[in-house]
Amino acid sequence: MSPYIYALGAILCWASLPAAIGSGLKGLTIEELMFYSFTGAAVFLYCQDVLIEKTFRLYVPGVKKSLVGVWGIFGYHYVYYTAMDSAPLAEAAILATTWSFWIVVFYSVIAYKTLKLSIVITALLGLTGVSLVISSGQVLQFNTAYLKGYLLALSCGLIWSSFSVALPFLETKRNPMTIFTIYAAALSSVLFFITGPHQMPPARTLASVLYLGFVPLGLSFFLWNKAITRGNLSVIGLLSYLVPPLAVLLVALIHRQQVSGQIIAGMGIIIAASVLGKVVISLTSRAD
Interior CA angle at 145 toward 141 and 150, to 5°? Predict the structure, then answer.
C-alpha cells in the first residue's frame, strides 16, 4: 500500500477527533487525559501487534531508540496538552501545527543537503491555509500574557517534526510505536498517581477519552510510522496540513454545521500547496 494512503489514514484519525467526541474531553485534567488516553492506546496497539506479529512478545528497542520514542510520543503530547491549556485555542493550534512545516524543512535539509527555497515557500503556503481555517470567524490576538503557552505550542511543532524525521533512521526490527506508547502510558500513570486522587470521569467523558486513545492516538501512530518510514517526508508534511480543514468538514458533515468561505479558501490553498509541493519535490529530485 502507498505510504501516502497510510499518511492520509493517520490524518483522518486526527481529523475525526472533534466530530467524534465534541466537548467530551472537557473537565479532564492534563494528567487524567494523558492517563486514560495512553492506557487505551497502549492496549489497542499491543493487541494489534499480537494479531499482526503472531506473538505475545513485546518488541523493545535499545535505550537510545526508546528515548527517541519517549521524546516524540510522551513529550509531544504532554507539551501539546499543556500548551492548549495555557493559551487561547486558535493561536495555540496554529503555532502547534507548525510541525508540518518543520517536517518539510528538516527533510529538505537532510535529503538535498541544503534548504530549498521553493520547498520552504510551498510549506509556508500550506501553513497560511491552515491559519485561515483555524482562525475562521475569530480575531487572532497574540497577547504576551500567553507567551508561555505560545512557546509551548511552538515547541510541539519542533518535538513532533524532529521525532517524525528521526523515525526512518531508527531502523527497528518491528513497528516501535507499540512500545513507545507503552512508555508514554507508564509515564502518564506516574503523573496520574502523584497528582491524585482523581475521580472516575462520567461515562460520556470516558468513552471520549478512550476513542482518543484508540483512534487519534493508537491507530494513527501505527499508520504514521508506516507512512513516515516508507514515503517522502516533504510530501507527507504537506499532506498533514489537511488535518484542520478535514476536522472542520467532518464536524460540519456530522453535526450539520455550515462551512465558511474562509475555511473553503484555506482548504483550497492547502490542496494547492500539496500539489505544488509534490511537483516541486519531484523536479528537485530530478535536478539532483
Answer: 70
**Grid cell for residue 17:** 477527533
With contact defined as beta carbons under 8 Å apart, do 52 and 242 qualify? no
Q: Is the confidence at residue 280, as pLDDT, over 80?
A: no
CA distance 65 to 126: 31
Q: How many CA atoms, within 13 angstroms, populate the side-chain half-sphere of residue 234?
A: 28
Q: What is the pLDDT of residue 262?
A: 80
Give the 3-state DSSP-derived string for 158-188, with helices as H, strands as E and coil as C: HHHHHHHHHHHHCCCCCCCHHHHHHHHHHHH
pLDDT given at position 286? 62
Between CA 58 and CA 49 the distance in angstroms is 8
Range of the domain at 276: 3-287
Total domain count, the chain:
1
If one counts every other C-beta atom within 10 angstroms of the C-beta of residue 26, the result is: 9
| Separation between Cα atoms, residue 111 and residue 132, nearest integer Å | 30
Q: Where are the alpha helices (DSSP H) in 54-176?
A: 63-69, 76-86, 89-96, 98-112, 117-134, 147-166
Which conformational region is residue 54 in: left (phi greater than 0), alpha (psi within -120 to 50 degrees), or beta?
left
Give dist(CA 245, CA 131) in Å, integer: 10
* Stretch 246-260: mean pLDDT: 80
In 3D space, the residue among 131, 142, 148, 144 whose CA is nearest the CA of residue 93 turns out to be 131
Choose among 27, 37, 106: nearest CA to 74.
37
